[in-house]
Amino acid sequence: MAPTHYDVIIIGAGMSGLAAAIRLAYFERKVLVLERHYAAGGLNSYYALGGYQFDVGLHAMTNYVPPGTRGAPLTKLCRQLRLRPEDFALVPQYQSEIRFPGIMLRFNNDFECFIQEVIEHFPAQKDNFLRLVRCIRDYDELDLEAKPISGRQVVSSYLTDPLLIDMLFCPLMIYGNAAERDMEFGQFVVMFKSIFCEGLARPREGVRRIINVLRRKVREVGGTVRMKCGVKALHVKDGRARSVELDNGEALTADTILSSAGYVETLRLCDDCEPEPLAPLAGRLSFVEIISILDAPLKHLGHDTTIVFYNTAKAFHYEVPKDLVDPRSGVICCPDNFLYDKPLPKSMIRMTCLANFDGWSGLPEAEYVAAKAEWLPRIHREVLQFVPDFRDRIVFTDFFTPRTIKQWTGHLNGAVYGMPGKIKTGRTHLENLFICGNDQGFLGIVGAMLSGISMANLHVLKK
After folding, report:
1. What phi and psi, each to the nearest 5 degrees, are found at residue 359?
2. What is the DSSP letter of 318?
């Protein structure tokens, strides 16, 4: 008979939940991970459709450094989980770009090259930018008690060119910011270091490689993962979560509960919380993504850039669109354009733009399908300013929306990066319930795994 009491129950088999499970099981804690869906990974997962395999979430893994690099987040992650860098089989990017009207900044995994790009295109900002870089390098983004401060306010105290400021914020916001228009400076530092100072890479097999490594490691160290096993409620008494009720009515207990489901989403499970007052805390920023399978790599059309972060407007607007989609800015990812030793089995292009959850979720099914058909060419028009025309090479396309994101992640409003106000300590109002993942504040795949490890260390292993 399966046990009903555990040292730790983890809600969600995403990157942070699986990493926390590995860390805790290494120290002989009896750990159970509960996942509502049939696939692990949470926001970073994979699926099959039309005979093709697709990744969700992962364009590239940030924080990439060569094996053996001391002090880097990826190195710390491997040490904490007792993994080898080669387990993830990461392949570096070739080159990425930030494209605004009339100007482009290139970057790869050599930060000095990016510094020279900025100096070349913004020579008047050279000294200011170098001072900002020193500030970023000296800032302790891992201080869990740090007071939040405006990223735009800090960056603008160094840089005086609004175009350069927008070009720096564009990729950092699109790849990891839950707040509209501004970005908390600690989050800015995390993303700046992970994308520019360190770099981007991807396993040839995509996100499934990372998930499979983590799932296998959980089993090896004695943890348990139950799939298609959602949490219906957390029953509270005397300031503690006393039991976990599953969708099937089963009741489990644990000394500690660690949730990667999101802060608001987790508190809404607690039977001592009213859901309505929590709703305003939830994030609102969501995206559409179009993934097209091509009959040939874009390299054959002369495009070898890995990722393009683009903006076609006079200024960069990072906010919930008034319309269903804001195609004026976004990301174009070509998974073929990493430095693989052999081509991918199928070529593809991924296009991601900000989207309006309320608009998409309120559409009847026929109008929902029609809206996808309407917005596809409108997004193509923007994207084709930066890549060769690939439309006659498309063999299959999938188009998912904020509605899809909410369905598969449970995140209110389809909020990809969770709520704007992060809970860096992971604490909730209950003494044995803690948060890890996006709403704790360490972003990206490496950040999510480090979040799970950090919260496991802080709230379980150090007690």
Report:
1. -65, -45
2. -
Q: Which two tokens stand for residue 411?
A: 């995140």
pLDDT in tens, 166-195: 999 999 999 999 999 999 999 999 999 999
* Phi (first) and psi of residue 10, to 5 degrees: -110, 125
| DSSP for 158-170, written as a single string | T---HHHHHHHHH
> Measured between alpha carbons, how far is 136 from 134 in angstroms, rounded to an integer?
5
CA–CA distance from 361 to each of 195, 369, 407 (Å)?
32, 12, 10
Q: In this structure, what are the phi and psi dihedrals at residue 226, rounded to the nearest 5 degrees? A: -110, 115
Whole-angstrom distance, CA of residue 157 vs CA of residue 160: 8
Count Cβ atoms below 10 Å from residue 141 Cβ, excluding itself. Answer: 20
Higher-pLDDT residue of 54 and 234 is 234
Element housing 31 (H / E): strand 31-34
Closest residue by Cα to residue 438 from 319, 287, 321, 264: 264
Rounded distance between C-alpha atoms, residue 424 and residue 395, angstroms: 44
Q: Which residue has the tokens 């600690």?
A: 186
Domain ranges for the chain: 5-57+206-281+420-461, 108-198, 284-409
Is pTM beyond 0.90? Reply is yes
Q: Closest by alpha carbon to 20, among 5, 7, 3, 36?
A: 7
Q: 3-class DSSP state for residue 270? A: strand
Q: Which amino acid is at 322?
A: K
Report the alpha-carbon distance of residue 348 to residue 299 in Å, rounded: 11
Which residues have C-beta within 8 Å of that of residue 118, sequence separation ≥ 6? 105, 125, 126, 129, 164
Q: In sequence order, what are the residues at sequence separation of 6 or more whose Cβ sits closer than 8 angstroms to the Cβ of residue 407? A: none
Strand-pairing partners, residue 47, are 54
Which tens digits make up the pLDDT trace of 397-433?
A: 999 999 999 988 889 999 999 999 999 999 999 999 9
- Per-residue pLDDT tens over the stretch 331-370: 999 999 999 999 999 999 999 999 999 999 999 999 999 9
Distance CA 332, CA 334 (A): 7
Kindly give the residue spans of alpha helices, DSSP state H, lying in 317-463. Answer: 357-361, 365-383, 402-409, 444-456
What CATH number is given for 5-57+206-281+420-461 in this structure?
Answer: 3.50.50.60
What's the confidence (pLDDT) of residue 1?
53
Q: Could you tell me the sign of the dihedral formed by the alpha carbons of 304, 285, 262, 363, in that order?
A: negative
Q: Which residues contact 396 (CB under 8 A, 6 or more apart)?
A: 50, 51, 52, 292, 293
Q: Is the pLDDT of residue 276 over 90?
A: no
